[in-house]
UniProtKB/TrEMBL annotation:
Keywords annotated in UniProt: Membrane, Transmembrane, Transmembrane helix
Alphabetical list of Pfam families matching this protein: PD40 (PF07676)
UniProt protein name: WD40 repeat domain-containing protein
KW Transmembrane (keyword) present: yes
InterPro entries xref list: 6-blade_b-propeller_TolB-like, WD40
Transmembrane segments: 37-54, 362-380
């Protein structure tokens, strides 16, 4: 090697940047430890946040009648991961509809949502694949579903011999439909048989709870509370009872609706003999209508009606007015709705506050899922680091750098 070449190599070596192997290794190890500590801190924090949500302690039971039942001015969709009904106390509204918020299938719902009687507390109840037959008791503390009564204070369930059709105003009795139509006393389980049930049956109790109108064999039958028939008539043109609020507030007339048309124009009939009579002059409902129900009467004399359509509506019908007015803004997904009698009778409305789309029971799942991903990432990173170290130790120097001499 010439002197010039040695001098050039020495000059190049002097100008080359040096790397402190020890300091670099220490810095890299510290960075790894910091990442590991941060990962474990995040995991512990996630689990700590999840603990309050996944607590399985029994919810406190609200005192009965602790607040006046009111209606929200707008309804929202239930959140994914909403709490169950235990501890709700009482509800003002129960409803269901299309889409993922109400079940795993777009057109078939297996979940009904409930809104608190006095607060914007949204809960959900899994009922199986049903479209209707879910009714709130007059005070909103019990919800009747096919084959069951569910206490909204405790979440306890009791058997019910059929599909609920109509609650009595005092909440002690309920009409149920199976192969036969029955009145069931919910405190004693005593039943009164009303005869064979039609495939589709509706019923309505008079405001004082002493008379019951129901459909049977294409007739409207009016009975007393013991089930004794007081009169019956054939409704004109296949008309049907307008809903659980079909009785006029004074109990002197029954409201019927045409069953084969999409118009909403009530006609009033004498419950004793079926003569058409005058009743509250409620405005007709225009627009596209798939179905609906007269739900009850407010203190100002107006009636609340739910109308199922592409854009469902809850309307207030005031006697003597030309048009109904909106009583509650509804999501377009809703196709079924019932309201507790006490919420209607209070006449009070509160500001609605629909929930965020992620509910309290969904957060733990998201947190635990994120923590799981974090742990998996850390394990993969550790495994890759160990594999790299094994390769470095196992590979001879000569393989990558050539002979030492």
């Amino acid at each position: 090697m010439s002197a010039n070449l040695r001098e050039e190599l020495r000059r190049t070596a002097d100008q080359a940047q040096t790397y402190d192997v020890y300091a670099g290794s220490v810095a890299k190890a510290r960075r790894g430890r910091r990442r590991s500590v941060a990962a474990w801190v995040l995991l512990v924090a996630a689990l700590a946040l999840a603990v309050p949500f996944v607590s399985r302690s029994r919810p406190a039971i609200p005192p009965a009648g602790s607040a006046t039942s009111t209606l929200p001015d707008r309804l929202g969709l239930p959140a994914f991961g909403s709490r169950g009904v235990a501890g709700l106390g009482a509800a003002s509204v129960v409803y269901s509809g299309y889409g993922g918020r109400f079940g795993p299938f777009f057109d078939d719902a297996d979940t009904f949502a409930l809104v608190g009687a006095a607060t914007e507390d949204y809960r959900t109840l899994h009922t199986g694949l049903i479209e209707d037959g879910v009714l709130l008791s007059p005070d909103g503390t019990v919800v009747a579903i096919p084959e069951q009564l569910v206490d909204l204070r405790t979440g306890d369930q009791r058997p019910l011999p059929g599909v609920p059709v109509a609650w009595s105003p005092d909440g002690r009795r309920i009409v149920v439909q199976g192969t036969r139509l029955r009145i069931v006393d919910v405190t004693t389980d005593a039943t009164i048989d009303l005869g064979p049930a039609d495939e589709w049956t509706s019923a309505a109790w008079s405001p004082d709870g002493r008379r019951l109108a129901y459909e049977q064999d294409h007739r409207i039958i009016v009975a007393d509370e013991s089930g004794r028939a007081l009169g019956s008539f054939v409704p004109p043109g296949g008309s049907v009872l307008a809903g659980k609020g079909a009785w006029a507030p004074d109990g002197r007339a029954l409201a019927l609706l045409p069953s084969e048309t999409r118009s909403w124009a009530l006609r009033w009939f004498d419950p004793a003999d079926g003569r058409e009579v005058s009743g509250p002059d409620l405005p007709a409902i225009d627009g596209e209508i798939f179905g609906g129900s007269l739900l009850g009467w407010r203190p100002d004399g107006s009636a609340l009606a739910f109308v199922a359509a592409n854009q469902p509506r809850l309307l207030a019908l005031t006697p003597g007015t030309a048009e109904p007015v909106s009583a509650m803004a509804l999501p377009s997904e809703v196709y079924y709705l019932d309201i507790a009698d006490r919420a209607i009778e209070s006449g009070q409305v509160r500001a609605g506050d629909p929930p965020f789309f992620i509910g309290p029971l969904m957060w733990p799942r998201l947190i635990v899922g994120a923590a799981g991903v974090l742990v998996l990432w850390w394990l993969i990173r550790r495994a890759r680091e160990r594999a790299r170290l094994r390769r470095v130790v196992a590979t001879p120097w000569e393989t990558t750098h050539g002979p030492l001499v």
